[in-house]
Amino acid sequence: MPLDTSFQITSDELNEIYARLQPYFPKYLTKIEPHTYGIRFEFQPFTGREEEPIKPLVRDDPKLSYVAESDNQTEYLIREKAHVILSNLYYQAREKWGHAAYVADLKDVVRDTPDRWKTYQHELKALGTAYDYLRTPDAAREWPAAVSRLIDAQDRTRAAARAFDQRAREIAQVRETHLGAELTLTEALAAAGYPDSRDWDIADARDYGQHYYSDWDSHPLEETTRRLIEQQDNHVAKVGRLSGASSGS
Q: Which residues contact 66 (CB under 8 A, 6 or more apart)?
């Protein structure tokens, strides 16, 4: 039966296994040594632009090919342990490479996202100011002009949201590509040099470009903004109907 990952290896066995596996150790492996919980591997830092680490086939190697336990128990155990070590090595290498590839791909697509987010935040704040002004006594004396300024602020906020979503969509697509990585998007963006990205509003990749959004969907920023503007418009229209403000009275 194949061995599990909790087997014991003597020093002599480990030396023999290292000798047999030497031709299959990748160049980015810098250290391999016994550890309390198994074998520990150290690697050169990955850029994410290397080829994906893939465990080499060793079935044709006369020192590593399968030998039945009933034929030679010693050789069977040595070879099974060697296979486990090689599998663990490439699993860990692939995991670290995957993290680096995730970060590298994000660096390629982020570009001016921070600036676009700042622009949106600025316009959103201005929109809030314009909307809140409508609730003041001064707004009643210049209602049409105040509403016009609100509309201008809405348009600018919507445009800023749309511009941000252009970058956010690419970021979301990278996240989807690397769903297997044990990194959250926030962690990966921080590793890419964007620690403030935790505030960015990034929807799921599949939710960009839809014509209808349910409450259960994640919402791109433009859709979130559309809903906000719709609430404002409904409120302003109701105020106009009840007060006659829309006619200037």
A: 59, 79
